[in-house]
Amino acid sequence: MNKIIIACLGLVSCATSLFAQNPFIRDQFTADPSARVFGNKVYVFPSHDILATEGKGRVGWFCMEDYHVFSSENLTDWTDHGVIVTQNNVPWVRPDSYSMWAPDCIERNGKYYFYFPTAAKDTVTYGRGFTIGVAVADKPEGPYTPEATPIKGVRGIDPNVFIDKDGQAYLYWSAGNIYGAKLKANMLELDSEVFTLGELPTKGLKEGPYVFERNGIYYMTYPHVENKTERLEYAIGTSPLGPFKIVGAIMDESASGCWTNHHSIVQFKNQWYLFYHDKDYSPKFDKARSIRIDSLSFNADGTIKKVIPTLRGVGVTAATKQIQIDRYTQLSEQGVSIAFLDTLNTFKGWKTIFNQQGAWAQYNSVDFGSKQLKTVSIHVRAADGAVLQIRTDNVDGPVIAEITIPKNAEWKTIDAAVLKAIKGVKNIVVLAKDTKTCEVDWVSFR
Ligand code: FUB
Questions:
Q1: What start and end residues bound the annotated signal peptide (predicted)?
Q2: Which of its termini does the chain have fewer beta carbons within 10 Å around, N or C?
């Protein structure tokens, strides 16, 4: 009965279309992205960072009260399906714990099992720290019905579930070290002793395990603090519980100084992707994070090529959308910089500032379609006026528009004619023709 009431509490599903590029969720903080391919879509189950205030969480620390799920068919347009589980609708969770940390989700026999770590109300039975629970749904979007109790025998955070080719499921988690155990077919109980995966680095925190298999190699991937902050690393083995041999880094420590990183790796439409996080919308506080995607590839021997984080991210951007060139692929060495549009509300996004003749920003993979687009619009501000060019391919490519921006201290949308026929997917370059300061919010074609 409890379960039915919880499922019916109506965790409202709000299908909202979001944006592309990194970070790819742009209206809330998100972290610890667990990506899964279900059917023809990628679903991402992240943590949901919020800012603690007096009486709501611990100020200056992680604060999370619920989980959303997001989906996309093209990695460019993301739909937020709303809250799927909150600390208030799980019978065993302390409803003021604000500790709904990194989750995972997996499908088995048409059911979706959502695993999440948090603190229990009953500390006598479940201990004071973190334990891991499950909520089950018939669809990835939910509604999810939480189990009445957490999984017995598990103490820790960052659950990850892997189902091997023979159908055996495994649960991994972390608590300083990384642990693993078999799961029963019901996906709700352990079916073996708990193994400590002791071959992984012995010094420095390891957490956030994520296991996958490719061509018979089992990849145990995990964030690890060897120096100051977390670096994504991996080890490989020939079976899901190891032994594993340490190989190296997947992604180096973040240049932003974000202390945590937490990731997942999936193959979608013949391309592998790394989902991870940084602190894009919160440069001064690294417990308010944002999730990102970049492509990942393998060497012939199965080792992973190191992923360099990008702002451009993945996927193709329709030329008719507002193309955020501040999520650039490449910038000229001088004369161009990126800043928030509004430092008091960073979710408004960024702007690209040009102040040197010849400075440029390149944005790759813009889809112009098959119908000639005749006009380019640019949302721009230039107190002394300015002239910008748009080119395709690269900085030396053909000029497809030249836009004269009148003197204007306020943001304005300026139109100009597209001078050349362009079809299909192209890179675009926005280039300053003079030294006047010119701020660009977005570019769009119609
Ligand atoms: O999001 C809270 C914690 O930070 C996660 O559980 C860790 O993996 C780290 O990302």
A1: 1-20
A2: N
Give pLDDT, residue 134: 98
CA–CA separation, 270 and 292 (whole Å): 19
Q: In whole angstroms, give the CA distance from residue 50 to residue 227.
A: 27
The pLDDT tens digits for 68-94 are 999 999 999 999 999 999 999 999 999
Q: Quote the strand ranges of 309-421, DSSP E.
A: 317-318, 330-331, 336-340, 350-354, 360-367, 375-382, 386-392, 399-405, 408-417
- Name which residue sits closest to atom 8 of ligand 1, judged by CA: 208
Distance from chain centroid for Cα 277? 5
Burial profile 153-168: b = 16 or more Cβ within 10 angstroms, e = fewer:
ebbbbbbbbbbeeeee
Atom of ligand 1 nearest to the CA of 262: 10
Nearest CA to ligand 1 atom 2: 101
Domain ranges (residues) in the chain: 2-296, 317-445
The CA-atom distances, in angstroms, between 224 and each of 196, 232, 250, 310, 346 are: 16, 6, 11, 21, 29
Pocket mutation for ligand 1, best pick of 58, 97, 158 (most atoms within 8 Å of C-beta): 158
Low-confidence ranges of the chain (pLDDT < 70): 1-20
- Torsion angles phi and psi, residue 348, rounded to 5: -70, -15
Active site annotation includes 49: yes
Give me the chain's average pLDDT, please: 94
317-445 is classed CATH 1.10.287.110: no
Q: How far, in Å, CA of 256 to CA of 223, rounded?
A: 16
**What is the pLDDT, as a whole number, of residue 428?**
98
Q: Which atom of ligand 1 is nearest to the CA of 289?
A: 1
Round the CA-based radius of gyration of the chain to a whole number and report it: 23
- Cα separation, 361 vs 428, whole angstroms: 8
Residue 207: active-site member: yes
Annotated catalytic residue within 65, 66, 104, 207: 207
pLDDT at 7: 40
Check residue 19 and give its pLDDT: 53
Look up the CATH number of domain 2-296.
2.115.10.20
Structure tokens at 338: 């990126």
- CA–CA separation, 414 and 403 (whole Å): 8
- The three-class DSSP label of residue 164 is coil
Q: Measured at the alpha carbon of residue 81, what is the angle toward residues 213 and 274, in degrees to the nearest 5?
A: 30
Sequence-ordered list of residues with C-beta below 8 angstroms from that of 157, at least 6 positions apart, any chain:
101, 102, 117, 130, 132, 173, 174, 175, 207
